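User: quick one, fold this
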Amino acid sequence: MKTNQFVRNKKLLSFISLFITTVILFGCFSFAYPQQAQAKSLSEINDTIKTLDKHLADLEREKQSVEKAALPALTEANRLNNIIIMYQDKINALNSRISAYQKQIDSLESEIKTLDAQISDQEKIIKENEEKLGKRLRALYMAGENSTLEVILTADNMTSLLTRIELMKNVSDNDMKLINKVKFAILKIQQSKKAKEAKIKVLENNKKKIEADKQDEVAAQKKVAAERAKLDGAVNAYKAEMSRIANDKRLASIYLAQMERERRQYDAYINSQISSGSGKVGDLVCPIYETDRYITSLYGRRKLYGQWDNHTGLDITCGNKRANLHAAHDGIVVKTVYSNFGLGNHVILDNGDGLSTTYAHMSSLSVVQGQKVKKGDILGQMGSTGNSTGPHLHLEIKINKKRVNPLPYMPPMQYRG
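Assistant:
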């Protein structure tokens, strides 16, 4: 049992050491939350939102990893908790036994006091009867053997003789009573002494048991304290790490909500610069004129970097990685953005009558805000700025300020997703 306990304790220390190492490693990768949003464009806001979404997913994975790493220690902690309960029950039982022994000791001490009083009384009786018996023996000795014959011969008549014989008999009976009384008193003293010795022996044995129980209790208490320290170390480390993760998730959620608000505000601003109308799109040209153009990612839900997201546009590329990008329709440049985030460098056109188009991830821009352009005019060159996996055009179309799938409005193209 001691070997098994040693192995368990050794394993527990290894679990706690591994768990604390895991906590330290996870704790090194903290996320910085700005005091206020620093994003300058919708692409930066969107990029920050994606980063926060990824961070929240990472935190959830971290939480699961911490729980997995802590599982052996927590399992061992539960076992230790059961041991602590067992020891506490043992301590409670020992306290009850000690209390019972103390009551017995108190009772024995009271009985010993009573025995001492009885012995004292018997000693007085013996002393008194010894004095009386001594006097009688001395009187008989002084009278000698002839005293009995003399009492009989000196009687005047039969009545006197009978009376004297009766008196002598009474005297003899009294002497025997005295002797028996002394013998009984001595016997009582001997019994009292034996009882006292037996009680004292019981008392001493009970005291020894109490001392042994106290030593067991002290040993149990020390073991409880040692096991509790191991339990607290593992559980407190786990709680501290889970609290850190929960706090980090709370901060990320707060900042994510802030970014969502800013995105809505930015969308509202851009939408305020875009006209409303019938929503008739008309004829659009593909912004990439190269004949080898093809689609790499469709509009809608897709999986990117191992995570699902909502793709808000259509991705198109071609062999010329610096191909010119042309306006899909006449319009006014309502926003030009230079950014290393999200959509990267991009241009937003208000094409009139409720139509707007966005051209993103450009390597360079050839227009400025407020500029009027015609269908086919060069807006800039294709690139891979912002959150991009390679040179391509990210094309977005809005009709009356709502994003729609651009595919139906583009000429037929091959899809190579």
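User: anything notable?
Assistant: The CA atoms of residues 62 and 155 lie 128 Å apart.
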